[in-house]
Amino acid sequence: MAKLQRWNEAVLRVAVAVPVYRLFDYLVPEQFERSNIKPGVRLEVPFGKAKKIAVLVECVQHSDVELDKLKRAERILDEEPLLSAKDLELLHWAGRYYHHPLGEVFSAAFPVMLRQGKSAVIQAEKRYALTDSGKAIDSELLKRTPKQKSVLEKFQAHQSSLSEAELSAWNDNWKSSVKQLIDKRLLQLAESGSRANFALGAAEAIIRNNALECNPQQQAAIDAVCDSLGRFGVFLLEGVTGSGKTEVYMQVIRTVLERGQQVLVLLPEITLTPQLEQRFMQRFTVSIAVSHSKLTDRQRACAWLQMQRGECAILLGTRSALFTPLQNPGLIILDEEHDSSFKQQEGFRFSARDVAVVRGKLLNIPVLLGSATPALESLHNVDNKRYRLLHLPERAGNATAPALQLLDIRNKRMQEGLSEALIGEMRLTLAKNEQVLLFLNRRGFAPTLICHGCGWVARCRRCDANLVIHYDEGMLRCHHCGQEQRLIRQCPSCKIGELTPLGLGTERVEKVLAELFADKVIVRLDRDSTQRKGSLENYLQQINQGSVNIILGTQMLAKGHHFPNVTLVAILDVDSGLFSIDFHAPEKLAQMIVQVSGRAGRAEKPGRVIMQTRQPEHPLLMTLIRQDYRSFAKIALAERKEAALPPFSYQALLRVQATNAEMPKLFLHAVVELANEHSKGHTQILGPVAAPMARRAGLYRYQLLFQSGKRPELHALLDVLMPLIEKLKQAKKVRWSLDVDPVDLY
Ligand code: ADP
Ligand code: ZN
Ligand code: ZN
Fold first, then answer.
1. Is the pLDDT at 4 greater than 50, yes or no?
2. Range(s) within the chain of domains with CATH label 3.40.50.300
3. Nearest C-alpha neighbor of 323 from the set 356, 297, 345
4. Which residues have their alpha-adjacent CB atom under 5 A from ion ligand 2?
5. Where does the Helicase C-terminal domain start and stop, copy by copy (predicted)?
6. Residue 366 pLDDT
7. Which of 187, 205, 333, 160 is nearest to 262 (CA)?
8. What are residue 387's DSSP bridge partners?
């Protein structure tokens, strides 16, 4: 290490978004008052041959680099820090806990535009609102101009002004219609104050008078959280779908707003439906910011800054919104806390749930986690008294819970995945003019194209995976790397055999449904059918208006949506979830079943759930049917304890890939050697083994699992190991990443 030096000049220690485990030192820019520079500001620094945007982490008095080798920062971008001291503390913690380079952690906290060094002063967007005639008019009068009609209806449903961001999130083509509606004097530019600008400390009239009267369990939950405002505490609100969790959130939020504080609401990526936003808009008059991946960079930066400056009271966002700075934080809510989209699956692999809890602790505010099917980790934390359980055992209002039923399909005749018995049930339901929902978690036409003559299978050239048939587009596509080619008609191997699709995808089921139920309206909801912006919302609207009879879809259906007129739900292929090698699989399957079931019978009509299976005696399925999710969770946790698996032990997975087939293994052997040198013997080092998908996108993949019964020991080892791994000579020839608390082992 170079000699420690002391100067009169301050040294700026900054985080730069590069994948190395260190910070970088710079001198204060020429002609700059050092006393003015506070941690949390962005600056531009020379870095190699380029310039990069960095974040000031601390000002120090010395550097290990010699004075004449230190470069000067080019300029300071912000007068005031964008991140508070607590925000910085949280990022430091996250960098340490996930053993991830601090520069990348810091970068993840900012929206893209600010990362790029754009100004933190962003023009607020225009808002539009209905005029009095716009409020009064029947939208049917606009039926000749359907685009204008749908924009008008959007405004009428919201009963308040909408920003450009909100409109764009809903539909790309709103601009001309809004202009025409303004010309017709049905819409107007809203004055900036039309949605109560959230002046902190002076929150009056923040709520419209449409709160529901709560049942005793809801009230108990609300009281428990409200009593804890101003203090740290984690609450797990467990309630079946439809039990009124959202109502609890809204009533707690109201109290937080009355205290003049802000609320951060985190949702899984797919659940972030306009439905929840709309409910919040209808309930609260304060400004609500929204942040998710469908918005533009500008919109996301705007939401971030509005929360940072305290101009918005509520932020509805997905995982990445977790780090949004808050002027006056009061509460963090995480809805569907079990959802795996809260875990980032690349780069900085943080769990938004776990970091939210740490953030709540740092800020000294409560954290409210909600789910119908809590993660086993969270239930374990309740057992440990780390989280407090709030239970909503029944559905709110008049809705009754759906009845679950197994349908044994062994030796039964099937039509593209539908048994005769199921088809019969569907007919009965449809005859009553009620909706049917079919769940199949595989998109495309069929997962495999095989030659009936010679057994040739269409494989991805770059992955250990089959190509999926997308019949409508006439394509074969790899769902792992995106590689695609035209659907072929002739077997490339034997040239004569017949090519046959093997297995089921949503597209294939859709085709047979169209034949079996020719007079019914069928909607398919999956990633392919909802790619266009606004299309998912359109489908949901059609479903809610009752113009759809059968809804068919993937996991997109399992989350958050209300389908009040659905009374029959069928899970077409429950067995495919029963035999995974990942120990998380039973938990995920049970959650999926309960979540999908929750879509049925939400209004007055009771619902039924049918699961087609060839494993009618399977213990997991039996427990769910005869008892409930909680009983399943109890058994599953006991099994995890027996096997010393998380949450009874702690894991970190080191994943490696390279174009060279041998390199990942060689690298991991070197890591094992290092680990054995530094391990105190309490951490198991399992592997290296080939990844379950040994080749993906042309890269060979290996992995190494660290597991320990004691979290501090695992982390102590990783603390020593990670900086050393970075310096291994093989490290330059592979891509590697560490996943702390992995949620899937692939
Ligand atoms: P969850 O978020 O648990 O799925 P919601 O809060 O969305 O449940 O409530 C489900 C339905 O029940 C909604 O239509 C809601 O308006 C209604 N609801 C909630 N709480 C009550 C209540 N106390 N009385 C009557 N209806 C209620
Ligand atoms: Zn062939
Ligand atoms: Zn591929």
1. no
2. 198-392, 403-445+504-639
3. 356
4. 451, 453-454, 456, 491, 493-494, 497
5. 483-643
6. 98
7. 333
8. none
Q: pLDDT tens, 475-523? A: 999 999 999 999 999 999 999 999 999 999 999 999 999 999 999 999 9
The pLDDT tens digits of the residues spanning 420-466 come to 999 999 999 999 999 999 999 999 999 999 999 999 999 999 999 99
Q: How many CB atoms within 10 Å of residue 506?
A: 25
For residue 31, count other CB atoms closer than 10 A to its CB.
Answer: 5
Q: Cβ of 681: how many Cβ atoms within 10 Å?
A: 7
> What are the Cα distances from residue 357, in Å, to 272, 333, 712?
21, 10, 18
Q: Report d(CA 648, CA 708) in Å as an integer.
A: 9
Residues in the chain: 746
CB neighbours (10 Å) of residue 339?
26
Residue 246 near ligand 1, beta carbon < 6 Å = yes
Mean of pLDDT values over 102-107: 95
Cis peptide before 564 (omega within 30 of 0): no
Distant-in-sequence, close-in-space partners of 735: CB < 8 Å, separation ≥ 6: 656, 657, 658, 699
Q: Distance (Å, rounded) from C-alpha 99 to C-alpha 348?
A: 9
pLDDT tens digits, residue range 369-398? 999 999 999 999 999 999 999 999 877 766
What is the number of the ligand 1 atom nearest to the C-alpha of 215? 23
Q: For residue range 213-254, what is the model confidence (pLDDT) as tens digits?
A: 899 999 999 999 999 999 999 999 999 878 899 999 999 999
Percentage of residues in the chain with pLDDT exceeding 70? 93
685 pLDDT above the threshold of 90: yes
Q: Which of 247, 395, 398, 595 maximizes ligand 1 atoms within 8 Å of its Cβ, making it the mutation to test the pocket?
A: 247
Distance CA 591, CA 607 (A): 18
Choose the CATH number for 403-445+504-639 among 3.40.50.300, 3.40.50.11740, 1.10.10.10, 3.90.950.20.
Answer: 3.40.50.300
Percent of the chain residues topping a pLDDT of 90: 68
Q: How far is the CA of 441 from the centre of ligand 2 (A)?
A: 29
Residue type, 528: D
Instruction: Name the token pair of 83.
Output: 């991140």
Measured in whole angstroms, the distance separating CA 109 from the mean position of its chain's CA atoms is 16
Nearest to 141 by CA among 171, 181, 174: 181
Distance CA 550, CA 532 (A): 21
238 Cβ closer than 6 Å to some ligand 1 atom: no
Q: Which atom of ligand 1 is nearest to the CA of 564?
A: 14
Cis upstream peptide for 606 (omega within 30°): no
Q: In angstroms, what is the span from residue 210 Cα to ligand 2's centroid? A: 65
Ligand 1 centroid to Cα of residue 630, in Å, is: 21
* Residues 214/215/217/218 CA torsion (nearest 10 deg): -20
Residues contacting residue 380 through CB under 8 Å, at least 6 positions apart? 637, 647, 648
* CATH class of the domain comprising 650-740: alpha beta
At the second CATH level, the architecture of 198-392 is 3-Layer(aba) Sandwich (3.40)
Could you please state the CATH topology (level 3) that the domain comprising 2-115 is classified under: GIY-YIG endonuclease (3.40.1440)
